[in-house]
Fold:
Amino acid sequence: MQKVAVIGVGNSKFGNRNDVNVQELAFEAVKQSIEDAGVSPTDIEFVAFGSAGAGAWYEESLPAVTISEYCGLTGAGLVRCEAACATGSAAFFTAYSAIASGYAEITAAIGVEKMRQIDTPTAMEFIGRSGYYTWEFHNFGLTFPAYYALHATAHMAKYGTTEEDLALVAVKNHKYASMNPVAHFQNKITVDDALSSMVIAWPLKLYDCCPITDGAASVILASEEKVKELKIDTPIWVAGIGYSSGTANLSKRLDYVGLEAAVQASRMAYKMAKITPDQVDFANVHDCFTIAEIMAYEDLGFCKKGEGAKLIREGQTEIGGKIPVNVDGGLKAKGHPIGATGCSMIYELTKQLREEAVEKSRQVPLKNYIGLAHNVGGTGHYCYVTILRR
Structure:
């Protein structure tokens, strides 16, 4: 396979973006990424577009076509990808594969979601249908806060994780989001704020849950030959990608204290990258709910099973700790526009590995120049783990 590098990235402002339509929102990220890469739209041969809610949350049922035209990408190969909340990473993997297989030299992965055009109850229903509609949503009314509450109570019962531990994740991620100009939430919070917020699905409270967000992110990739031809100063190489999936029906799983799909995807990515978890300098993990971040520490091998809460208690996932995690605010506070999240993780990894964090207080100290993105769809229904290296 050909070596593949990230050569350009862009990220829109996340939040309630009723000031733009979906094409304009995507353009914010695409324009940045093309300028960052130093290429023109006509240089891009293939586009993998990620959106999970087209035709549901917003009006365009074929957004890849309209966004491609609006961004000047008409003529490129085009495909829309869907992997629930891991959609952006699925698009990135597809764009990567087009180059690695020799079909293209320059590709783009674009993720976008416009989720704020409908009311919250309707959005919750659409998202709730993304697990197993017939069995779990239709029969039992499960939505995703309830799914992750099952994980939280299981982890608490088995390992002694507490509501305060969950709150610490929220406090950390809000702190870093407050330093990130593209983040949905710009406010810091306290443990008391988190613990006293409204219960959504016990033990998960309002501040344990990520927001419903509009946003877009774009990544330009190139082959090794194109990197040389374009004289890219700081290519960020794709070192490893792993993927896996879990059962649609949660009752068929062995336990609820972790996501087996994340374990398998990370092992695959580590093997491809020829590294071990302790060589990763920093990570962006899928903290759709605070318990998901704690489980990710364990599933990715950053600590032993059951010791995830200890990492957050000791500040080991802060900048300066053992493994800084979600120093852009994560899904929890930067926001979670479902189709864009995976590409936005790649944006953050790329900026950090180039040592280009705009807010220098968010720059992670680098030793091995390796970053990891962990993107989960549903409750482990899909999982992609991507490792980038400078």
